[in-house]
Write a structure and sequence with these properties.
This protein is of the alpha/beta class. The chain has a single domain, classed as Spore Coat Polysaccharide Biosynthesis Protein SpsA, Chain A (Alpha-Beta Complex), CATH 3.90.550.10. Helices cover 35% and strands 16% of the residues. It is built from eight helices and seven strands, in the order E-H-E-H-E-H-E-H-E-H-E-H-H-E-H. Helix 5 packs parallel to helix 7 and helix 7 packs parallel to helix 8. The longest helix has 18 residues. The relative contact order is 0.17.
Length: 241
């Protein structure tokens, strides 16, 4: 089975090679084949030069000539994926590719169409960082659940693993972090089977490069309302439907 790992990155010079190496070292490989897609969102810190210097670290490098945001980078990367399953992987070190087998298990054995990796369930280690981020995350997840009628614990997680034919059917409209509530709404209303598994989390601080801010929280609220109340009437039945 071919797995497409999509890595959006912007100014991640300190971690990009480490995360690409970690993806390749994941215990999911060589059991499965790997298509590693990096989307550089017009980095200005030397990330792109580093990627150009080490082409052996990825399968495809896609470049934005203007910074557009994480959602736009994912739109580019997901469209380029050819694998059976798409894994979204942040370019920092907050999420551990060693957990791919845990994320894949419901897709391979339980009829899932999409799997979310939750930072708020399970007994794995979690770095203690920002209280208000945690509270905001849980508020947004609860608000999203009220509109979608699913019971996720972590809507904002990076780790979303989906069958390619499902995720590629959706038009991704959000350019920044509004991607998370947008894709959650579209998946939830499409009829696919969603699973959630617990993951570990090595959160980072703003001084270490964290980029999300309070404005993204307001955009997430807007996206929750927009993509639930004013959604297109489309329905997809995946492998388990």
């Amino acid at each position: 089975m071919l797995l497409s790992v999509v890595v959006p990155c912007y100014n991640e010079r300190e971690t990009i090679l480490q995360i690409l190496h970690a993806v390749k070292k994941s215990p999911a490989f060589p059991e499965h084949e790997l298509e590693l897609i990096v989307v550089d969102d017009c980095s200005t810190d030397g990330t792109r030069d580093l990627l150009d210097k080490y082409p052996q670290t990825y399968s495809k490098l896609l470049k934005h000539e203007v910074n557009q945001g994480k959602g736009a980078a994912l739109r580019t990367g997901i469209a380029a994926a050819t694998g059976d399953i798409v894994i979204i992987q942040d370019a920092d070190l907050e999420y551990d590719p060693r957990e791919y087998p845990v994320l894949l298990e419901p897709l391979l054995n339980r009829g899932a169409d999409v799997v979310y990796g939750s930072r708020f369930m399970g007994g794995g280690p979690h770095r203690v960082v920002y209280f208000w981020h945690m509270l905001g995350n849980r508020f947004l997840t609860t608000l999203s659940n009220m509109f979608t009628n699913v019971n996720l614990t972590d809507m904002e997680t990076c780790y979303k693993v989906c069958r390619r034919e499902i995720i590629q059917q959706f038009e991704i409209e959000e350019d920044r972090f509004g991607f998370e509530p947008e894709i959650t709404a579209k998946l939830a209303h499409s009829g696919c089977i969603i699973y959630e598994v617990g993951i570990t989390y090595q959160g980072r601080t703003y001084s270490e490069g964290k980029k999300i801010g309070y404005k993204d929280g307001f955009r997430a609220i807007y996206a929750i309302i927009k993509y639930n109340l004013f959604r297109k009437h489309e329905r997809f039945y995946g492998a388990g439907g």
